[in-house]
Amino acid sequence: MAFPITDIREDEIYLIMALAADIRNENMELIKMLLAKDYYVLVITTNQPYDVLKKNYEKRGIAMEKVFIVDTITKYALGHDHEPVKNCRFINNPADMTSIGIAVTESLSVLKGKKVSMLFDSVNSMLIYISSQNITKFIHFITNKLRLLNFSGMFLAVEKGLDPDVLTQLTTFVDEVVDIDKIPQKESG
Amino acid sequence: MDTGATTETVRDLESLVASLTELIEVQEKVVSEQSERLKQNEEALRESNDRFLVFIKEAAMRLKNPLEVVEENLAIVVNDIEHSDSEPKTVSLQLRIQIKNLEQIRKNIIELNQAIVDHSGEMSEASKQFLTG
């Protein structure tokens, strides 16, 4: 289904909860919605590699010119460098929060002054490699960066996959929590 | 009545009272120390249980949930293959990522088992080795 927030504010940060089976689709719907609103999008991917994202985006007619990616998983899985790609930074290890932080900071700096939104896909896949305590610190760091630059941001997470205490903490960093599955679908036709 | 004898009896009684008072003080001190030790033990046990509960919750979040992530990722790969929608190179990369994810999940399980071994006082060396090896 399409992302339900049609009137997102440029500087607002969301935690978007979806079913595990819907995460890939939500990623693409969000990108389409953001590009349609003239955003530049920085995707931090901890699950789907750049090659797969690019293929899926292109298949959905999503142009890559305004999409920038921080890919934390490809290099780690391959065990060697990916050939350089203009709009993508490859991180050695998904557990290396320092390198991810630097890549995000540099990518956001390049986009300074533009209308930007960040998409983090996903909190749950990052939990494989990083403790909830560290992921909470990391998301706090990212949301601070976004707020300083007046950028918007969206953190994708799998519904029921987070401990209630961790979810409560994450909720304090964002402006709104959107549970995709609880939004009534519009009747078609 | 003999005044000297009475005085002596009073002295004896005073001495007895003093001894009893001293004994009570010692007993009170012992009870107080034991009570403090018991309180400290209870506090240590409570803290240990709290830490263990936090760890169990963290482990559940880092085991159950990641397995669901891997499950969904594999379902996507299968779907792509069945619809002839993927190049071998891409399928290979997607499967490599799932192998890495499963490797990390195994490490997370060993970490959890280590915490259980550390928490459990009575466990044979063989069992400890099995859980954490």
What is the gist of this entry?
The complex is a heterodimer of chains A (189) and B (133). With 189 residues, chain A is an alpha/beta fold. Helices cover 39% and strands 20% of the residues of chain A.
Total tally of structural domains of chain B: 1
How helix-rich are the residues of chain A, as a percent range? 25-40%
Largest sheet of chain B: none
Q: Based on the structure given, which CATH architecture of chain A is correct? A: 3-Layer(aba) Sandwich
Beta-strand content bin of chain A: 15-25%
Describe this structure in words.
The complex is a heterodimer of chains A (189) and B (133). By secondary structure, chain A is an alpha/beta fold. Chain A has a single domain, classed as Rossmann fold (3-Layer(aba) Sandwich), CATH 3.40.50.300. Chain A is 39% helix and 20% strand. A seven-stranded parallel sheet of chain A has the order 4-3-2-5-6-1-7, with helices on both faces. In chain A, β3, α3 and β4 form a beta-alpha-beta unit. Chain A is globular. In chain A, 43% of the residues are buried. The mean pLDDT of chain A is 89. Chain B has 133 residues and is mostly helical. Chain B has one domain. Chain B is built from three helices and no strands. In chain B, α1 packs antiparallel against α2. The longest helix of chain B is centred in the first third of the chain and has 80 residues. The interface between A and B is medium-sized, with 28 and 27 residues.
Summary keywords:
A: 189 residues, alpha/beta, Rossmann fold, seven-stranded parallel β-sheet, 7 strands, B: 133 residues, 90% helix, 0% strand, rod-shaped
Write the layout of secondary structure elements.
The complex is a heterodimer of chains A (189) and B (133).
Chain A: E1 13-18, H1 23-36, E2 40-45, H2 50-59, E3 67-71, H3 74-78, E4 88-90, H4 97-110, E5 116-121, H5 123-126, H6 132-148, E6 152-158, H7 164-173, E7 176-179
Helix pairs in contact in A: 4-6, 6-7
Chain B: H1 3-82, H2 88-119, H3 125-132
